[in-house]
Amino acid sequence: MPYSSYDDFEFKIPVGTKGDNYDRFQVRLQEVKESVKIITQALDKLPDGPTITDDRKIALPPRHELATSMEALIHHFKLVTEGMRVPEGEVYNAIEGARGELGCFVRSDGSSKPARVHMRDPSLVNMQATPAATEGWLLADMLATVAMFDPIIGGVDR
Question: pLDDT for 28-40, tens place per residue?
Fold first, then answer.
């Protein structure tokens, strides 16, 4: 389901028709071209102004302020050594990554350090499609097929 500001950009969704490695490679090339179009449109629509909050209790002050402002130095020290306190609770949020849905689960006990963090990497889900994608193919094609899934091995290691 689209989220964020997809409606603000013009792009095509590349789709292959054969399902072989060459077809997936061609789709990947088209995805790169469409991504460049989206990035160009996003940069054109980027508003002028600050890109980070001025609230020094949650964002590090600019480095040049550390030499001249005791308050900036204190906020920097507290953020780096203690972090910021997050209310007690838990949340799961997912975004679209280059390889699929990238999810993050965080549980907070109210301190400045998370009680639990779990990342859901799409590589594990993608690799589970390997048997279907290689059915009836030669063993020699397996390496190229796995490479086309572009897995992050750390995300597959369970």
Answer: 999 999 999 999 9
The last residue of one of the domains, among 34, 68, 84, is: 84
pTM for the structure as a whole: 0.66
The encoded tokens of residue 141 equal 């094609």
Instruction: Check residue 130 and give left, alpha or beta (phi > 0: left; psi -120 to 50: alpha).
Output: alpha
- Its domain, for residue 149, covers 122-158
**Residue 79 CB neighbours (<10 A):** 17
Percent of the chain clearing pLDDT 70 (strictly above): 97
| Distance from C-alpha of 46 to C-alpha of 27, rounded to nearest angstrom | 28
Q: What's the whole-number average pLDDT of the chain?
A: 89
Rounded CA separation 44/5 (Å) = 14
The CB density around residue 75, as the number of other CB atoms within 10 Å, is: 20
Residue 15 sits in the same domain as residue 56 = no
Contact residues for 108 (Cβ-Cβ < 8 A; gap 6+):
86, 87, 88, 89, 90, 114, 115
